[in-house]
Amino acid sequence: MSRVSSAAVAGALAPDPQSSEPLYRQLYDKLRRQILTGALSAGQQIPSTRILAADLCVSRNTVMNAIEQLIAEGYLEGAAGTGTFVAAVVPEPITPADAASPHPPARAPRWSAFGERVTVPRSPADAWEGQPAPFRPGIPPFDLFPFDLWGRLASRRWRRRPFELLNYGDPAGYLPLRRAVIDYMSVARGIRAAAEQVIIVSGAQQGLELTARLLLDPGDPVWIEEPGYHGMWTALRLQGADAIPVPVDDAGLDVQAAISRARRVKMAYVTPSHQFPRGVTMTLGRRLDLLHWAEQSDAWILEDDYDAEFRYAGRPIPALQGLDPHGRVIYLGTFTKVLFPALRLAYLVVPPDLVDRFTAAKAAIDRQSPRMDQAILADFIEGGHLARHIRRMRTIYLERAEALVHAADRELKGAVDVARPQAGMHTIGWLRGDVSDRAVSRLAGDAHVVAWPLSTCYRDTAAPPPGLILGFAAYTEAEIAEATRALAGVITRAASPARSDG
Is the pTM of this model over 0.90? Predict the structure, then answer.
């Protein structure tokens, strides 16, 4: 057996001090590559860890970690008192072309039917993190969150050594939170249900996904609002259901138009209290028509009540679920819009005969939502803090909505009509003239302004009206004014004859 010189090995293994990889991992990768490419042949003895450490100017432990890993994986063999050798049998050597790159050659994966229906993010904005930029919708103001209060509630929980909260619990959710949800929502939204009908889920999207999986088969037809919420489109697409767009007018989803298009469907998805994205409220007549249709058709209604607590004209409209005498409505509420998105706590209120199956499905998907977060939230609600926080935010959001309307009237007059919102955390800026909302949205991103194009919320309309979805809740009046001025310049550029939407 030959012994390879320490100088030759050290030269090939010299670590890169600028690399973010740990030193032992760099040594492991480089020595493994020497073996796979045949630079070190079977049976060759490599220098001792002490010699290599000295030659490479690294600690002996660093070298030992790399060598021990290679021995464990079968690339090297060590014998007490005799040294360390390249194994007699190693994986098939890689080709020179492979050796030039640490990554295997690209190949087309064989996706499942579910995998084929998953779409990757369309733009960096879809994978957004960090501080929100105006006018990203659906984001509460982080600086106004009651940090100190939430911290005290969390500290009180942890000081009690809550062993029971560190264990597995009921997949349907922490019972005190489920009770708190019903106690609060029965007053705030007119919900009629028992705590046992509440299923705590990890965000509203999981609620949509869970409902679609349990109640729909591939090919099942579902009414969905047009324009409508992209998250429900995603849930239906992943399940392979057949989404049937139904027009929304100033009275909400047009039930008669829906029946004309497809009477026999399995489910209707609606946002009746504050339609996303248009912001209209479904009239009582339409609500009763929808409930009657569901009972007659043995169909389900999924009511997404994402931000209806924030109403600026009169009391919040009661939920559709409270009007339902036949148990056809599945109600979805969320705390991510009211408190903060990273909380990932939402809830379904399901008819009694669905509770067991929904609970079992929740257990199968992710076992349970974080119990400590549920307990802290329960304390927050039971102490009256949620109701006070919502009342405070409702006042602030109204001021910011007015600031947006006034800024638009000042900066965007003649180009954009910004609707005065009656509820919620966003409004629509209707574009005038022959201007592409998608082009405006792209240009706005370059100006650090987020303006979602309304046209992306349509699926079955050949020429949807151009508009921008403008969130206002998270931004100060100064930020709104500055972003509106920037948006005015963007729209001017987008409207230029020299430009096109491409």
Answer: no
